[in-house]
Amino acid sequence: MGTTRYETETSLRASIFGEVLLCRDRLTDERVVVKTVDLQLALQQTSRSQELVQENVMLEVEVLNRVRALGGHPNVINMHSYFVAKGGGVLHMVLDYCESGDLLDACVQPLVAEEGGDDKSSSNSDNGQGNQKEDAALLRSAALLGNHGPEQDDNDSNGPFLNGVDGSKRLQESVAQTYLVDVLSGLRFLHSHGIAHRDVSLENILLRNGHAVIADFGLCVQDTSASSGSPTSSGFLCDETVGKNYYMAPEIVMRERYDPRRADIWSVGIAFFILLTSSPPFERADPSDPGFRYVAKRGIKAVFTAWGLGQDVSETLQDLLSRMLCVDPEERITMEEIWQHPVLQRPRC
């Protein structure tokens, strides 16, 4: 097996250590993605732009190989194979081609370019008026939403989308629910085998044949003490600060030791809040962020209400997200509790 088997059609994008190629498998005539990795850069954890990074490609290959050995899962990216090209300097990872791209590109792109609009975030000041600033940040977002209006004209042709904050697209709840169940199903499988992702985000959720697929395992972690298929141990803890600002759980931001499975659940909650509203609730789960302080004090349901979406997102889904976005990780809903929640019991569209 080698590069002669795969015919490159185009380069999809650059990656941290190489590039992502759309290829055709000459043996099966199927389209696949081949992710190339400069091994020298990867082993030094240095990006192509010479920045230090945390992504561990060797662990990613190990985990995806293990997932395949376990039989795989329809909502976790499938790695067909991997090989090192002649000369030994470049690793090739052969992955499923997810034809619809990622959820960020597919579902959170502006419908209309606006000029002169207010920014939704509120900067900190030293006047001590914390509650007023937090309320103001959300009310400004609500005003923006009022200008664009979540209600749709009868002749609107946005398909599965509604207008969200600041003219961006927000996903209809029925469609978002389908993707949410997909992601939670894939994550449940991973967690049951002692694997936590630690970088769940809209960029790392791909769409294949109408379903969501978890990808990009460069920041994942394994609980080596867990037996395959059994619940992972209560001592599965990490201390590395990893992930993207919008999605990072508060216990990671605060540099506490954390259970990466509970952090994954927080990240999924943020991702689907964005799909349902078109905007993150805050920039970072840090006490210095007024939006986060508002959520910590009043809960995520208050944000839906302040943004004028309290009647547009069902009470049951708001309840699930509020429990996924519980600031205290010990009080946050667990995966097995999620699986018993009414949202997961609804018929899927």
Question: What do these coordinates show?
Answer:
By secondary structure, the chain is of the alpha+beta class. The protein folds into 2 domains: 4-96, Phosphorylase Kinase, domain 1; 168-221 and 240-342, Transferase(Phosphotransferase) domain 1 (Transferase(Phosphotransferase), domain 1). Helix content is 34%, strand content 16%. The chain is built from 12 helices and 11 strands. The strands form 4 sheets. It has a 5-stranded antiparallel beta sheet. A two-stranded antiparallel ribbon has the order 6-7. A two-stranded antiparallel sheet has the order 8-11. The longest helix is centred in the middle third of the chain and has 20 residues, at 173-192. Mean pLDDT is 85; it is low at 110-134, 139-156 and 228-232.
The coarse overall form would be: globular
Structural class: alpha+beta
If you consult CATH, what is the topology of the largest domain?
Answer: Transferase(Phosphotransferase), domain 1
Indicate the CATH architecture of the largest domain.
Orthogonal Bundle
Biggest β-sheet strands, sense, barrel: 5 strands, antiparallel
Q: Give the spatial strand order of the biggest sheet.
A: 1-2-3-5-4
Number of helices: 12
Tell me the distance between the termini: 41 Å
Number of strands: 11
Q: Report the β-strand fraction as a percent range.
A: 15-25%
Unreliable spans: 110-134, 139-156, 228-232
Portion of residues in helices? 25-40%
Radius of gyration: 21 Å
Indicate how many domains the architecture comprises.
2
Rounded mean pLDDT is: 85
- Secondary-structure element sequence? EEEHHEEHHEEHEEEEHHHHHHH
Name of the CATH class of the largest domain: Mainly Alpha
Supply the CATH superfamily name of the largest domain. Answer: Transferase(Phosphotransferase) domain 1
